[in-house]
Structure formats: structure tokens, C-alpha cells
Amino acid sequence: MAIAAAHGGRGTIRATLSGMMKLYDYWESGNGYKVRLLLAQLGLEYERIELDILSGETRTDDFLQMNPNGRIPLLELPDGRWLAESDAIQFFLAEGTAFLPIDRFERAQVLQWMFFEQYSHEPYIAVVRFWTFSGALDAHADELPERRRRGYQALDVMEQHLAGRRFFVGERYGIADIALYAYTHVAGEGGFELDAYPEIRAWLERVRGQAGHVPLQAARPA
Prior knowledge:
alpha+beta, Glutathione S-transferase Yfyf (Class Pi), Chain A, domain 2, 7 helices
């Protein structure tokens, strides 16, 4: 289901695509999940290509030709162009839909929270989760206390912002929420406790209740 009517006739991503997109992805990746969730909620079909980041499948010569940074997610458009970085992909897909505001200031606020997620949230909450499920936690024991401290700082900022608000920007669900939801809703897998964050927990429930929501490891919609 594409969501665009609220934006007064601006063209959706559908109008710019003719053919099947490919998403290079890894199931456990919250960054990949951001893109999968938005694609599902936009009702866009795509071919998903699983790459095991733990075994180096994003470091092959073939993949590095597509993304020299050697990371997923990577979106391949039907015309053969590639777009990397989860938040850039979301911004591209959301253009012309209700997931991205028209108002110039609100669009800047969306970017503000997406930059916050990548700079102040993901390096701590997501990285500790990755160390946990990849078995690397002991190897990073010296770094762990500071990573946890900075992760809780990010959660504190989110909790304060959400007080009295339903969503992060303009009281409407959008890609800023998706960007922050991806790793926040699995923060417990890295040992971050959310009991002291009632505003965040209520927001997580609102995000889960959105039309077209899929869980992190859901199969790609037909």
C-alpha cells in the first residue's frame, strides 16, 4: 500500500521506477531492516539478496564494485544505479509520500533525527548488540562501559523529546521514526534496559501498530 495522498499529488517512488529493485541485505541488520520496513509499508516489490556480513560476503570484489564501502544495505535500482547508506535509501524511497514531510523545516528535522541515529545512537546501541550476537563481546570488554553509557545518553535524549509527542517529527509517523525504531526496539539484545523509558516504550508500540508493519526477521512480502 503506497501512502502518498496526503501530499497533494507529489509523485511517489512508483512513478520513477520501471522494473524490480534489488536489496542487498543481512537479516540481523537494523540498518537493512529500516529499508525492508519502509518498502513493506510502501507496498513496493523488490528482490532481496542475503549477504552474510560475518563471513565477508560484502567484501568480495563484485560487491565492492557496487559499494566500495563494503556494507549493506545497498539498493540497486532497475536502471542499474546503486544507492548505499540506510538513511539515504529511506530518504530516496520516501520522497513524495506521507513518510517524508513537505514542509522545509520538518524535512530538516527528519534529517536531524536521522543524523542523530547514525552518530549518537547506532554506534553504541547497535554496535553492542552486534558484538553480543556475533560473539565478540569479550573481545571488546574494555570498550563496553563507555558504549553503554553513550547508548543510554541517546535513549535519554529520545525519552525527553517524546514526552508529550506521538512521533519524532510533526506528530506524524515517518522515516525519522523508522530510523530510530530499528535498533531501539532490539536494544535489549545488547543489554540495554528500557524499563526506565516509558515514553520510548509507548512510542515503540505506536510504531508497531502502523499499517504494513513487519518485524525485523519477517519474510519479504510477496
